[in-house]
Fold this sequence. Notes:
By secondary structure, chain A is mostly helical. Chain A has helices at residues 2-6, 11-54, 71-77, 80-111, 118-130, 133-144, 150-157, 170-198, 202-210, 215-226, 228-243, 247-253, 264-273, 278-305, and strands at 57-58, 66-67. Chain A has two domains: 2-54; 79-305, Orthogonal Bundle (MetI-like fold). The radius of gyration of chain A is 27 Å and the shape is flat. Chain B is mostly helical and 278 residues long. Chain B has two domains: 2-61; 71-277, Orthogonal Bundle (MetI-like fold). Helices cover 72% and strands 0% of the residues of chain B. Chain B contains 13 helices and no strands. Chain B has helices at 2-35, 57-63, 71-102, 108-120, 127-136, 143-147, 153-165, 169-177, 182-193, 195-211, 214-219, 228-236, 244-277. In chain B, helix 2 (57-63) crosses helix 13 and helix 3 (71-102) packs across helix 7. The longest helix of chain B has 34 residues, at 2-35. The relative contact order of chain B is 0.15. The mean pLDDT of chain B is 87. The interface between A and B is large, with 96 and 95 residues. Chain B: It is found in: Cell membrane. Chain B: The chain crosses the membrane at residues 12-33, 74-98, 110-131, 143-164, 185-207, 243-264.
Amino acid sequence: MVQISLTKGKKVTNMVFEKKRKVNNYLTAFLFLLPFLIVYLWFWIYPIISGFFISFTTGSFGVDSNFAGLENFKTMISDDKFWSALINTLYFILISTPTIVMLGLIFALIVNSKLKGTVFLRSAYFIPYMLSISVIASIWKFMLQNETGLFAEIFKQLGSSLKISWLGSWGMGWLSILIVTIWWTVGFNMILFLAGLQEISDELYEAADMDGANAWEKFRYITLPSLRGVTFLVVLFQIIASFKLFGQTYLITNGGPGIATTPIVHYIYQIAFRQWDMGYASAVSFVLLLIIAVISIIQYKVMSKN
Amino acid sequence: MKGKRKLVGRFWTYVFAYLLAIIMLAPLMWMIVSAFKAPGSTVTLLSKLFTPPFTLESFQKVLMPGETAMMGRWTFNSLFVAIVQTVITVIVSSLAAYAVSRIPFKGKKFITALFLIGLMIPFESIVVPLFDMIVELNWTNTFNALIWPGMNLSLAYFILKQFIDQIPNDLFEAAKLDGACTFKMWWTVVLPLSRSSMAAVGIFTFVQSWNNLLWPMLVAQETRMMTLPVGIPTFQSTFSTDLAVPMASNVLASIPAIIVFLIFQRHIIKGISMTGIK
């Protein structure tokens, strides 16, 4: 500031100074961005690009691969396992999104209703989310196992002859994974809803009280409409999270019986790291990338509008 | 009449709320109680679960040196990777966010678009080419492979930038008058003011890293390089019906996460709400 006023009137010096400052700004900005750019370009952008090219080749990790044109994509179209994995994933989205979103809202409403012990309740609902999927899966496997699991044992000791094969079929397998996923992640959705609930102004409720609205009416006409943005966000979060489903199926059902509970990421894992088919795994990965990118762009567009 | 109905409604809310809490905590309670039973105990000990004898033998068995479990080493690996990833993510993103927010230069739109890619594309869809890269670099079973890939820098960048944008310009002008250079302004203005959002981003990164399974499982094949989420299932696969020893390992693996939660509860919750508001 001081320097500029000193050169006031001397137009030439000023311009040189301006230019110098501009170059200087570029240089500083570049230096500040450099660490971010190195890590980001190297470990995010480069793999995206190389993955695109690998999907047109055949070969395995660390060896020279051959160009194969559209071969991998042709294989994908006629690969029943790929379609099964995609359908499994879509099915999981279909059952998990409404349940987890609704439960997340219910949990948030409870935590937000000023009960005694709110901190305890919030912690109790949230704490499973803090645990590693390996621990979660281990606990639930001990509960769900056919014959020797905790639930089977409880039925036995109650004298019931009821035998539920929790992991034995497509339907039950997915139901079990849904239950585990709800238990593990409902707290995350609860927090998102809670943030939305706390932004609703108390005045709205006070005004409704004056008009003699009951609890349901207040929920229906104030809470729900105010949560529209958050709900949209939670739904998209949930859909994206479901597309990334891996740990639960890998550790609890191992994708079985057969391939009944193998979602798309799990299938990519099998192609890449069980069959070592890097080219085909990249091609399937690229399809997953496109699907999630489209959803994310919709999410971003809608959110930046608000 | 209306007051009474309200009171009854309140009562049932309480019942429902605490019932849900019990359901959510029950599996964890079961894990903890089972861990204090003797090694070799099975699920069938149900009726004797809450009565003594309780013992630490299962924990001792997990922690015994020479056992297939390297709980100490895995905990160290997990902590080390999570802490390093957190520190890198927070600092590197803060520097970048500060530059774009406060230094005038052309090309900010391009930078924003470039960084958005990381927000739109899931890590899961690039593990295959990334693993190929790690193999080429000869990085399998190294900390480099565990640390560098998979940091969600973009998310941290956008959250932090939002906060740096809101810092009043006067503060920077004042620092400039004091003769502070660009870096010093980051240090004396940005860092102290965005402390709480950095903490939130940091804790969030830490938890994500701590619980990561897929990537560490791919690059850490040697037992000594495994993180807890990778080691635990490997260790437990050797026990078929024993309930106590696997549960003891689950408890040990969960203690750090639960401590982090109890200390940083508010930050964690804030961090999650911020990823939502984004």
